[in-house]
């Protein structure tokens, strides 16, 4: 376990104007540590996705500070924020967001191409990333030729290929069945073991609890509790329900 | 191949129906520009064809003559004086003008008479497919182009007709000397030309001056002007340009052709802009994902520009094939479409510029992408 790769301090975010104004985040503190898989759990409308967007440098907080791998994002322009994302953050989305006209390998190479990495080396690294998620045999497959679980594994490979310090996953198992969901979480947990890398998974699926090192609970734009993942998993173990639902 | 190029090409070819619609638009637009500009060049060549084939270094004409077909008269008796100027090898009068061709069946059609001195340099028929220039020395000999058989009511060598009541006989045929006015050229000798167009023996329309080797054209020009202040003296290139400018711009014909070409560019730009915009809109989630992945705006613009360039290159290739077919099929027509390598290159550049300019609206759309949409 190491220090914070991504840190948010006193984040507030107000969305909308006038009567339609919503206080989506109301002073959130969160540190994503290297070597940890952190779950961010909460009901719909609690501010999970807004916090994820702020942590992912896609949304500027109304107040508070976000630092990515030690870089303060305050007053950064959109291109600087894009560079921070490119260099330090990998994203995994609920609906995969793979490029339908590109093969699995090309989808992953794209994450390196936007960083200007030479195509030969990018290809090699893409193949390594696919091997890591168990999809070496799908290198030349297009998304339409893969199952949802396989597509999400490609998305994970795309997120890790550039070796980012933070991986932010938005409901990565929501569109998958239990078996595939477990497989995806196992891969993410494995990725999170690397000391310099932290994985934050936004979810409301309690079946993912056993994979978490820490669990942050968010309600009405506030972190209402932080739990140790191992202890929480032990509490749940008698139910023997983890990953079998 | 760069991955952003691969993405651009796959996005472009993925929706085949839209790609075909884009290609139809681009090809229509480029062919329109190509044909209009080809007509412009063809017209420009055609209106100066007589000047180009005259054996002359300098042209002497009445001041203010607008074009070759301008029948202003000059004094033919100046020939001796001009020939005496230092540096002049020869000065031959040329007679031109409209007349009527009376066919054997009694029908009448206008013709354009070109009469030159057959024994010296001048403007004589070229590209003869039958007969010879010497046959014009006969009392009735005329040479016409074989494409005008129907217009002139003739069926080949030996055909007879009348011009201004004078009997004529076709003694030679040319191949491809067509007039942009559609009025057939009739080559005759100079003295008969005066009779046919109705001007006195002491007049002509031009003097075609040949210079001695090494002679200074400017000095000769000055000497001629000193003798004939009301005449203009121009080099062949200058007269060619004046004649071309008159027909293309003085008559509005060139402006009409240009307007057609500009219309083609506008149509093409709008069509490409529309399809690029809708393609970008369809792939907006992908561009947002790219942005979320940290791609720079420039990277995304490159994808769109690659799409525009692919549209340009593929569209141009189809258009070029059609353009060359048009050139082939109009080569012996009244107004051939002329597409030079320079014009082809220019239209390719224009197509590229048109397609890249069309990417502007798509780029504007992409600029406004909020990467947060990937979470929705």
Instruction: List the helices and strands of chain B in order.
Output: HHHEEHEEEEHEEEHEEHEHHHHH
Estimated share of beta-strand residues of chain B: 15-25%
In the CATH scheme, what's the topology name of chain A? Rossmann fold
Spell out the CATH superfamily of chain A: P-loop containing nucleotide triphosphate hydrolases
Roughly how much helix do the residues of chain B carry, as a percent range?
A: 40-55%
| Structural class by secondary-structure content of chain A | alpha/beta
Largest sheet of chain A: 6 strands, mixed
The count of domains of chain B is 2
Order of helices and strands of chain A: EEEHEEHEHHHEHEEEH
Percent range for β-strand residues of chain A: 25-35%
Instruction: Give the N-terminus to C-terminus distance of chain B in angstroms.
Output: 33 Å
Rg over alpha carbons of chain A: 18 Å
| CATH-level-2 architecture of chain A | 3-Layer(aba) Sandwich
The radius of gyration computed from the alpha-carbon positions of chain B, rounded to a whole number of angstroms, is 29 Å
- The top-level CATH class of chain A is Alpha Beta
Number of helices of chain B: 12
Q: List low-pLDDT spans of chain A.
A: 238-245
Describe the structure.
The complex is a heterodimer of chains A (245) and B (376). By secondary structure, chain A is of the alpha/beta class. Chain A has one domain: 3-Layer(aba) Sandwich (Rossmann fold), CATH 3.40.50. Helices cover 32% and strands 27% of the residues of chain A. Chain A has 7 helices and 10 strands. In chain A, the strands form 2 sheets. In chain A, strands 6-7-8-3-9-10 form a 6-stranded mixed sheet. In chain A, strands 2-1-4-5 form a 4-stranded antiparallel sheet, with helices on one face. In chain A, helix 3 runs parallel beside helix 5 (148-160), helix 4 crosses helix 5 (148-160) and helix 5 runs parallel beside helix 6 (178-192). The longest helix of chain A has 15 residues, at 178-192. The model of chain A is unreliable at 238-245 (pLDDT under 50). By secondary structure, chain B is α+β, with helices and mostly antiparallel strands. Chain B has 2 domains: 3-46 and 252-375, no CATH class; 64-229, no CATH class. In chain B, 51% of the residues lie in helices and 19% in strands. Chain B is built from 12 helices and 12 strands. Chain B has a 6-stranded mixed β-barrel. In chain B, strands 2-10 form a two-stranded antiparallel sheet. In chain B, a hairpin with a 2-residue loop joins strand 7 and strand 8. The mean pLDDT of chain B is 89. The interface between A and B is medium-sized, with 34 and 25 residues.
């Amino acid at each position: 376990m190491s220090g914070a790769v991504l840190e948010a301090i006193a984040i507030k975010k107000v969305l909308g104007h006038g009567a339609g104004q919503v206080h989506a985040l109301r002073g959130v503190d969160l540190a994503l540590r290297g070597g940890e898989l952190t779950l961010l759990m909460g009901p719909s409308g609690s501010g999970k996705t807004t916090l994820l967007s702020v942590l992912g440098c896609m949304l500027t907080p109304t107040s508070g500070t976000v630092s990515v791998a030690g870089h303060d994002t305050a007053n950064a322009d959109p291109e600087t924020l894009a560079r921070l994302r490119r260099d330090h953050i990998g994203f995994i989305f609920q609906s995969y967001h793979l490029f339908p006209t590109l093969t699995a390998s090309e989808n992953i190479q794209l994450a390196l191409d936007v960083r200007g990495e030479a195509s030969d080396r990018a290809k090699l690294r893409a193949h390594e990333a696919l091997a890591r998620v168990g999809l070496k045999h799908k290198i030349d497959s297009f998304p339409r030729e893969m199952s949802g679980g396989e597509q999400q594994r490609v998305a994970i490979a795309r997120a890790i290929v550039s070796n980012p310090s933070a991986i932010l996953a938005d409901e990565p198992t929501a569109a998958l069945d239990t078996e595939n969901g477990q497989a995806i979480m196992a891969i993410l947990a494995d990725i999170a073991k690397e000391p310099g890398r932290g994985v934050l998974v936004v979810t409301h699926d309690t079946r993912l609890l056993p994979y978490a090192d820490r669990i942050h609970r968010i309600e009405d734009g506030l972190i209402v509790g932080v739990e140790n993942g191992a202890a929480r998993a032990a509490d749940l173990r008698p139910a023997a329900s983890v990953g079998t639902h | 191949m760069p991955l952003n190029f691969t993405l651009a090409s796959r996005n472009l070819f993925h929706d085949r129906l839209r790609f075909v619609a884009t290609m139809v638009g681009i090809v229509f637009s480029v062919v329109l520009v190509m044909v209009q500009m080809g007509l412009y060049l063809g017209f420009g060549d055609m209106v100066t064809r007589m000047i180009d084939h005259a054996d002359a270094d300098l042209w002497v004409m009445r001041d203010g003559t607008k074009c070759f077909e301008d029948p202003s008269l000059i004094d033919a008796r100046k020939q001796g004086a001009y020939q005496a100027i230092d540096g002049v090898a020869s000065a031959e009068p040329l007679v031109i003008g409209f007349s009527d061709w009376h066919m054997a069946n009694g029908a009448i059609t206008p013709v354009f008479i070109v009469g030159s001195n057959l024994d010296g340099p001048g403007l004589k028929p070229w590209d003869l497919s039958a007969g010879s220039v010497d046959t014009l020395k006969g009392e009735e000999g005329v040479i016409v182009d074989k494409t005008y058989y129907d217009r002139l009511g003739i069926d080949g060598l030996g055909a007879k007709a009348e011009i201004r009541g004078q009997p004529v006989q076709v003694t030679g045929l040319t191949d491809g000397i067509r007039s942009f006015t559609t009025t057939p050229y009739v080559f005759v000798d100079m003295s008969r030309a005066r009779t046919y167009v109705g001007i006195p023996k002491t007049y002509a329309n031009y003097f075609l001056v040949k210079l001695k080797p090494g002679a200074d054209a400017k000095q000769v020009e000055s000497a001629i002007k000193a003798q004939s202040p009301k005449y203009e003296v121009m080099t062949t290139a200058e007269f060619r340009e004046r004649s071309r400018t008159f027909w293309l711009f003085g008559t509005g014909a060139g402006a009409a052709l240009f307007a057609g070409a500009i219309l083609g560019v506008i149509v093409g730009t709008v069509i490409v802009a529309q399809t690029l915009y809708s393609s970008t809109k369809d792939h907006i989630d992908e561009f947002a994902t790219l942005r979320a992945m940290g791609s720079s705006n420039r990277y995304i613009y490159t994808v769109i520009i690659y799409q525009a360039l692919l549209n340009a290159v593929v569209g141009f290739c189809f258009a070029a094939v059609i353009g060359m077919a048009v050139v082939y099929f109009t080569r012996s027509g009244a107004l051939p479409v002329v597409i030079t390598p320079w014009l082809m290159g220019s239209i390719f550049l224009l197509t590229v510029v048109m397609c890249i300019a069309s990417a502007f609206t798509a780029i504007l759309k992409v600029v406004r992408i909020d990467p947060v949409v990937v979470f929705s």
